[in-house]
Here is the input.
Amino acid sequence: MKQILAIIFVSVLFSNCGYAQPDRTKKSTMDNKDTTGKIVYSTTDTSKVELKEDDWKKILTPEQYYIARQKGTERPWTSKFEKHDEVGLYRCVACGNALFRSNTKFDSGCGWPSFYEPVSKTSIIYTPDNTLGMTRTEVQCGRCKAHLGHVFDDGPPPTGLRYCINGVILEFEKKKS
Ligand SMILES: [Zn+2]
Here is the structure.
Protein backbone atom coordinates (compact mmCIF):
# COMPACT_ATOMS: atom_id res chain seq x y z
CA MET A 1 0.00 0.00 0.00
CA LYS A 2 2.79 2.34 0.97
CA GLN A 3 4.44 1.62 -2.37
CA ILE A 4 1.28 2.46 -4.32
CA LEU A 5 0.89 5.69 -2.39
CA ALA A 6 4.50 6.54 -3.12
CA ILE A 7 3.96 5.93 -6.85
CA ILE A 8 0.85 8.11 -6.83
CA PHE A 9 2.70 10.82 -4.93
CA VAL A 10 5.63 10.77 -7.34
CA SER A 11 3.41 10.84 -10.42
CA VAL A 12 1.39 13.76 -9.02
CA LEU A 13 4.64 15.53 -8.22
CA PHE A 14 5.90 15.05 -11.77
CA SER A 15 2.66 16.06 -13.43
CA ASN A 16 2.61 19.23 -11.33
CA CYS A 17 6.20 19.81 -12.31
CA GLY A 18 5.13 19.66 -15.94
CA TYR A 19 2.60 22.41 -15.41
CA ALA A 20 5.01 24.53 -13.42
CA GLN A 21 7.49 24.64 -16.31
CA PRO A 22 7.56 27.98 -18.11
CA ASP A 23 6.03 27.77 -21.56
CA ARG A 24 9.08 27.99 -23.81
CA THR A 25 7.01 27.88 -26.96
CA LYS A 26 5.51 31.25 -26.14
CA LYS A 27 7.69 34.31 -26.00
CA SER A 28 6.88 36.98 -23.52
CA THR A 29 6.02 40.22 -25.25
CA MET A 30 5.95 42.23 -22.06
CA ASP A 31 8.84 44.41 -20.91
CA ASN A 32 10.91 43.60 -23.95
CA LYS A 33 12.49 47.00 -24.25
CA ASP A 34 15.47 47.71 -26.45
CA THR A 35 18.45 49.95 -25.56
CA THR A 36 16.42 53.06 -26.34
CA GLY A 37 13.50 51.97 -24.13
CA LYS A 38 11.28 50.96 -27.04
CA ILE A 39 9.12 47.80 -26.85
CA VAL A 40 10.74 45.29 -29.18
CA TYR A 41 7.71 43.32 -30.37
CA SER A 42 5.27 45.45 -32.33
CA THR A 43 3.05 44.94 -35.35
CA THR A 44 2.75 48.70 -35.92
CA ASP A 45 6.18 50.17 -35.11
CA THR A 46 8.53 49.70 -38.07
CA SER A 47 11.56 51.50 -36.60
CA LYS A 48 14.76 49.49 -36.15
CA VAL A 49 15.32 47.42 -33.01
CA GLU A 50 18.68 47.45 -31.22
CA LEU A 51 19.01 44.84 -28.50
CA LYS A 52 21.94 43.28 -26.66
CA GLU A 53 22.53 39.57 -27.30
CA ASP A 54 21.86 38.81 -23.61
CA ASP A 55 18.46 40.45 -23.88
CA TRP A 56 17.60 38.53 -27.04
CA LYS A 57 18.44 35.38 -25.10
CA LYS A 58 15.86 36.32 -22.47
CA ILE A 59 13.11 37.13 -24.99
CA LEU A 60 13.52 34.27 -27.46
CA THR A 61 13.17 30.55 -26.89
CA PRO A 62 16.49 28.65 -27.21
CA GLU A 63 15.40 27.40 -30.65
CA GLN A 64 14.45 30.89 -31.86
CA TYR A 65 17.70 32.32 -30.48
CA TYR A 66 19.75 29.69 -32.30
CA ILE A 67 18.12 30.54 -35.65
CA ALA A 68 17.70 34.30 -35.25
CA ARG A 69 20.92 35.34 -33.53
CA GLN A 70 23.34 32.47 -34.24
CA LYS A 71 22.28 32.03 -37.88
CA GLY A 72 21.21 28.44 -37.29
CA THR A 73 19.14 26.29 -39.63
CA GLU A 74 16.18 24.21 -38.55
CA ARG A 75 15.99 20.62 -39.75
CA PRO A 76 14.14 20.38 -43.10
CA TRP A 77 10.48 19.27 -43.10
CA THR A 78 10.09 20.11 -39.40
CA SER A 79 8.26 23.42 -39.69
CA LYS A 80 4.50 23.55 -39.24
CA PHE A 81 4.56 26.31 -41.86
CA GLU A 82 6.14 24.19 -44.58
CA LYS A 83 2.77 22.81 -45.73
CA HIS A 84 0.72 25.67 -44.27
CA ASP A 85 -1.71 27.21 -46.76
CA GLU A 86 -3.99 29.53 -44.76
CA VAL A 87 -4.54 33.10 -45.97
CA GLY A 88 -2.71 35.71 -43.94
CA LEU A 89 0.58 37.32 -43.08
CA TYR A 90 3.87 35.86 -41.86
CA ARG A 91 5.68 38.02 -39.31
CA CYS A 92 9.08 37.92 -37.62
CA VAL A 93 8.47 36.12 -34.32
CA ALA A 94 11.19 38.19 -32.62
CA CYS A 95 9.94 41.69 -33.44
CA GLY A 96 6.55 41.46 -35.21
CA ASN A 97 7.81 42.85 -38.53
CA ALA A 98 5.63 41.87 -41.53
CA LEU A 99 7.76 39.64 -43.80
CA PHE A 100 5.73 37.60 -46.29
CA ARG A 101 2.13 37.33 -47.46
CA SER A 102 0.57 33.90 -47.87
CA ASN A 103 -0.19 34.57 -51.56
CA THR A 104 3.58 34.64 -52.27
CA LYS A 105 4.15 31.27 -50.58
CA PHE A 106 4.75 28.26 -52.77
CA ASP A 107 5.58 24.59 -52.39
CA SER A 108 9.26 24.44 -53.31
CA GLY A 109 9.79 20.91 -52.00
CA CYS A 110 13.03 22.03 -50.34
CA GLY A 111 11.80 21.29 -46.80
CA TRP A 112 11.51 24.87 -45.56
CA PRO A 113 8.69 27.43 -45.94
CA SER A 114 9.32 29.18 -49.27
CA PHE A 115 8.14 32.49 -50.67
CA TYR A 116 8.84 34.33 -53.94
CA GLU A 117 8.49 37.91 -52.66
CA PRO A 118 8.71 39.79 -49.33
CA VAL A 119 6.01 42.21 -48.14
CA SER A 120 8.15 45.22 -49.06
CA LYS A 121 11.69 46.20 -50.04
CA THR A 122 12.48 47.27 -46.49
CA SER A 123 11.06 44.20 -44.74
CA ILE A 124 14.23 42.21 -45.54
CA ILE A 125 18.00 42.88 -45.38
CA TYR A 126 20.25 41.08 -47.88
CA THR A 127 23.81 40.07 -46.99
CA PRO A 128 26.34 38.02 -49.01
CA ASP A 129 27.09 34.72 -47.25
CA ASN A 130 30.19 32.78 -48.30
CA THR A 131 30.20 30.24 -45.48
CA LEU A 132 30.15 26.44 -45.99
CA GLY A 133 31.98 26.85 -49.32
CA MET A 134 28.91 28.30 -51.01
CA THR A 135 28.04 31.70 -52.42
CA ARG A 136 24.63 32.53 -51.07
CA THR A 137 22.59 35.54 -50.04
CA GLU A 138 21.45 35.62 -46.44
CA VAL A 139 18.12 37.25 -45.63
CA GLN A 140 17.54 38.96 -42.31
CA CYS A 141 14.56 40.73 -40.76
CA GLY A 142 14.63 44.36 -41.85
CA ARG A 143 13.63 45.54 -38.39
CA CYS A 144 15.58 43.42 -35.86
CA LYS A 145 18.17 41.72 -38.11
CA ALA A 146 17.06 38.22 -37.07
CA HIS A 147 18.53 35.62 -39.43
CA LEU A 148 15.63 34.25 -41.51
CA GLY A 149 17.27 32.07 -44.14
CA HIS A 150 18.59 32.53 -47.68
CA VAL A 151 17.29 33.69 -51.05
CA PHE A 152 18.00 31.76 -54.27
CA ASP A 153 17.31 32.59 -57.92
CA ASP A 154 15.46 29.37 -58.78
CA GLY A 155 11.99 30.49 -57.69
CA PRO A 156 8.76 30.80 -59.70
CA PRO A 157 7.50 33.86 -61.63
CA PRO A 158 6.99 36.74 -61.30
CA THR A 159 10.23 37.28 -59.33
CA GLY A 160 12.12 34.05 -60.05
CA LEU A 161 13.27 34.12 -56.44
CA ARG A 162 12.99 31.53 -53.68
CA TYR A 163 13.14 32.86 -50.14
CA CYS A 164 13.96 29.75 -48.13
CA ILE A 165 12.95 30.61 -44.56
CA ASN A 166 13.29 28.91 -41.18
CA GLY A 167 9.75 28.40 -39.87
CA VAL A 168 10.98 28.78 -36.28
CA ILE A 169 11.45 32.51 -36.79
CA LEU A 170 8.02 33.01 -38.39
CA GLU A 171 4.65 33.57 -36.81
CA PHE A 172 1.39 33.54 -38.70
CA GLU A 173 -1.39 36.12 -38.53
CA LYS A 174 -4.55 34.72 -40.06
CA LYS A 175 -6.49 37.13 -42.26
CA LYS A 176 -9.70 38.23 -40.58
CA SER A 177 -12.70 37.46 -42.76
ZN1 LIG B 1 12.42 40.91 -36.68
